[in-house]
Amino acid sequence: MGDSFSLLLLGTPELAVGGRPVRIRSAKTRALLCYLATTPGVRSRAELAGLLWGERPDANARGSLRLALSELRKDVGGWLDITRDHVGFRADDDCFVDYRQLTRDPTVAGALRLWRGEFLDGLSFGDAPAFAGWLECERQRARLVLRELLVRAGPAASEHVVRLARIVTELEPYDEEAHRVLIASLARSGNRAAALACYEELRLRLARELGVDPVPETARSARTSRPGPRPPAGLPCRSPGRSWSAVSPTSAAYVPCCPGNA
Predict the structure, then answer these.
(1) 145-148: long-range contacts at Cβ-Cβ below 8 A with a sequence spacing of 24 or more?
(2) Cα separation of 65 and 83, whole Å?
(3) I want to staple 54 with a disulfide (CB 3.0 to 4.6 A). Which of 29, 50, 170, 184 is the partner?
């Protein structure tokens, strides 16, 4: 294959081959590449046609798939195995897909470097329910990876843990366990005012949107927040809008999330 291949899927998708950005014109062709790059093994043409063009008659869906594969051959043909019946993605040491890296036992710092936003952020199709179902499953999988990393790390006076906790609590605004990690980590970092502000924001959200109070453990975490110096003016509970750059290219194994993707 020769050239390196980089596909960033966390956030708005970005593709580069040989270090040069590549723009695939058709949105569904881009979606097809993203699916192949994150799904193990070869996939049947019938599956791929139904995934993105399943609302069309079978002959039309297969024709649309042929056009999409023709476009991919021009841009990334060396990274695909395309036969009459199946299509597969080739992954080797020159191939980097950030989502695969995220799902391969990452560290907190590694996840923060990879994370630019939701999996395939901004990508959706109203006429492809099968793809929409797969996409939602993979987004939930990415969120779960981050949450499990956060829970394992636990509260700590660490900028990385605070940043990860802010990301997780934005993705899961009712997750009290993630909020408790954020509150305690802010307090241990000396930002007691920010910790209490986070608790108050959570309390108001739960009352306004769900009609409930935080569980006693969450309320207790706010009460026991260690006193410390006030945070800089305007320190938010939510994470600031910023992107995290990807780590150096390296291949990674993928573990399927949804039934049917194994």
Answers:
(1) 145/102, 145/103, 145/106, 145/111, 146/111, 146/115, 146/171, 147/172, 147/175, 147/178
(2) 13
(3) 50
Which token pair is 155? 């509260």
- In whole angstroms, what is the distance from residue 22 CA to residue 157 CA? 41
Assess contact for 37 and 43: CB atoms under 8 A.
Answer: no
Nearest to 186 by CA among 223, 219, 156: 156
Strands 5-8 and 95-97: parallel
Going from the first residue of the chain to its last (262 residues), give the mean pLDDT of each consecutive group of 10, the final group possibly shorter. Answer: 86 94 95 95 96 94 97 92 95 89 92 97 94 97 97 95 98 97 95 95 97 96 69 49 35 39 43
What's the CA gap between 234 and 244, in Å, rounded?
22
